[in-house]
Amino acid sequence: MDQTLPTRDHGGGVDAAVARWGGAREDWLDLSTGINPVPYPLGHLPGRAWTALPDRAAMDRLIGAARSFWSVPPEADIVAAPGASALIARMPGQVAGRRAAIPGPTYNEHAAAFRAAGWEVVEEGEEGEEGEVEVRVGVHPNNPDGRLMAAGDIGGRALTVIDESFCDVCPEVSHVARTTEPGVVVLKSFGKFWGLAGLRLGFLIGSPAKCARMREALGPWAVAGPALEIGARALEDRSWAETTRKRLARDAARLDAMMAARGAGLAGGTTLFRTYTVPDAAAWQARLAEARILARVFPYSATWLRLGLPGGEDDWRRLWDALA
Amino acid sequence: MDQTLPTRDHGGGVDAAVARWGGAREDWLDLSTGINPVPYPLGHLPGRAWTALPDRAAMDRLIGAARSFWSVPPEADIVAAPGASALIARMPGQVAGRRAAIPGPTYNEHAAAFRAAGWEVVEEGEEGEEGEVEVRVGVHPNNPDGRLMAAGDIGGRALTVIDESFCDVCPEVSHVARTTEPGVVVLKSFGKFWGLAGLRLGFLIGSPAKCARMREALGPWAVAGPALEIGARALEDRSWAETTRKRLARDAARLDAMMAARGAGLAGGTTLFRTYTVPDAAAWQARLAEARILARVFPYSATWLRLGLPGGEDDWRRLWDALA
Asked: Band of the pLDDT at A1, cuts 50, 70, 90?
């Protein structure tokens, strides 16, 4: 009766896995997402983060930390939102037009948002074949294959959306500096790299006009008090970010080696998720599900299997055994 | 540089009070909002409320609890959002039209949202004088005067928005049963009655079609994991709600008596906030500010002073002394 969560294909659906394969929710190891399994420590939260309406000082601190962490150009502005998803859903309201190029395969909420707003979405097409479009969206690095958005694909349209939800593992390739160009915006996700997806925090970086428009669309007090506090602390903590990048790189290499030993080839990914080529992705997913490990497959590919990183040693061992 | 919080007139601006009257943030007693000062207890939060993408089971539990708590008709649906503000900002996208009647004075975000979407807003006008409008918005009970939306003002338009953000202190007057009528929706706020405004949680109750449209506009995983968990617990806890209603009624009467003794008359309100008539509201606000107590005044009235309820005995004593 209540379709309160998306019916579109997504990772993170442990409850759906329970319904399909059985077991209790707690039995499952969810490797179907690209969320860092070692989250930023929550620490102590002041009571007023929960009880008071989020005040300007808390938001200013978060925005200042974000500006510094992502080296946002002084000419660009930043908006914080309750998750990158909240920004993606409102992106069609940013600009007038009717056709958006969203080369696939990629994260499917971008196309869904534009279609829901009545746009035609061009998902396929080689360079130059997409025809007249007002908008281009690229996920950078892309989910699930990790490909990067070419510098030449940015700008020259009313709106270019660069979704850097997975880019904090490779900040050296970020296109944030391009947000000084007309119509270029970058999205950032807090939940994935910092491992706190339940917190709901994301950012839009772009021109002051685009940011003002998004702020109006989100309404006041868009971000919860705990997210303001934890987000600011985490973005100020560069040491945690550097250590985490190294750990994720090591763990991604470890997962690649493990999967190679079991006969899977690497198709792409980031150090937050790895996409492998296997002979029969659905069969591999089903085999892992017997061990209550949730892997991701894609409706458009029979051979791609995506895995997030295990956290503790028990989880690594469990995955290894399940792949035997 | 970053206008990350609303520039429109609102309560809850302790940082603005610090800038205007001095003191440290911690020095201030904020009585400028209508937030219950005795919040629902947070309790223990499971780690996955923070780390995992909010899953369907958590949302289903929250929605079930909301449906039961507010006696939502079976024909109506419910959407949870990160705060009633998030719903208010998206309300103009619910319907086609150009003129909205929003009788004032009332909470100013409704008119702001429709104006931002290009609508003409009719704020004044007696019954029948508003002309042709597609939308009517009423806050029920109204902020700041507590007046109720008449049953006859509901329905008969493309969209009737009944904002029941302050109605949980008087559930017997709720118009939720009217959401079975075409175009009638009710908004609910979690932060005020349960005293957890930083959590960001609100609800839209209306037809399945209206709710589906709103869900699409909000995007997936709109509500944070901690809000799903705490919101469900609180809405299942009828005993806390009943005790709280009685306490708020006692405390509102106590505040009225205190203010009457100091020469203020009651203009209206709910048991979450009281609006008083005083000879010079700005002067009263300034006098309270000397004691670092933040009261609310309104740009459209020289004589209305709004106060939320003090929490502990120290706060009551402090207010009494400041009014001397």
From this structure: very low
Residue A201 has pLDDT above 70, yes or no: yes
Instruction: Please give the mean pLDDT across all residues of chain B.
Output: 94
Are residues A79 and B15, on separate chains, in Cβ contact within 8 Å? no
Residue A50 is encoded by which pair of tokens?
């929960």
Over residues A119-159, the pLDDT tens digits come to: 999 987 655 667 889 999 999 999 999 999 999 999 999 99
Å from B230 to nearest chain A CA? 11
Domains of chain A, CATH where assigned: 14-30+239-323 (3.90.1150.10), 48-236 (3.40.640.10)
Phi and psi of B69, rounded to 5°?
A: -60, -40
> Phi and psi at residue A307, in whole multiples of 5°?
-130, 135
pLDDT, tens digit, 9 for 90 and up, residues B282-316 = 999 999 999 999 999 999 999 999 999 999 999 99
Q: What residue of A is the nearest CA neighbor of B55? A: A13
Any chain A CB within 8 A of the CB of B294?
no
Nearest CA in chain A to B221: A5
Identify the bridge partners of residue A163 per DSSP, sorted by sequence position. A139, A187
Chain B nearest-CA distance from A253, in A, is 23
Q: How far is CA B262 from the centre of its chain?
A: 28
Confidence of residue A7 (pLDDT cuts 50, 70, 90): low
Angstrom distance (rounded) from CA B196 to CA B14? 17
Residue B131, pLDDT score: 80
Inter-chain residue contact A198 with B226, CB threshold 8 Å: yes
Which A residues, 20 through 49, put their C-beta within 8 Å of a C-beta on chain B? Answer: 25, 30, 33, 35, 39, 42, 48-49
pTM: 0.94
Q: Which of residues 68-127 of B touch A (CB under 8 A)?
A: 77-80, 82-83, 85-86, 88-90, 109, 113, 116
Chain A residues close to B200, C-beta within 8 Å: 54, 82, 221-225
Could you tell me the two tokens for A85? 């998803």
